[in-house]
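Encode chain A's predicted structure.
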Amino acid sequence: MPVPRAPAVPVQIEPPEPVRRVFPRLNGGPRRFRSSTVSVSVRLDERGRVVGAHVISATPYTSEFVVGAALVAAQQWVFRPCRLRGQAIVSDFVINFNFPEDPH
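Encoded structure for chain A:
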């Protein structure tokens, strides 16, 4: 005889939401650079603070200066924390920084 199952309860999750964004500063870097995208994964604590960050991808031939600037900027972001059933939880978030080609 089959065992009756309890009805499925939908998981109530609210993803993290940026409340303070910091954009990379490229002052003092290379005079020219190619169009590129740098993706940074950040670990957020229960308060929405960045507690860890690492580059997960970058367009080929992106200068180390641009990659480093993206990483430094991502570490300064602040979020409204992710919530599971109303409770703030640790989470991960990916930030994509797009750098247009320098016209000079």
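The helical segments are 64-74.
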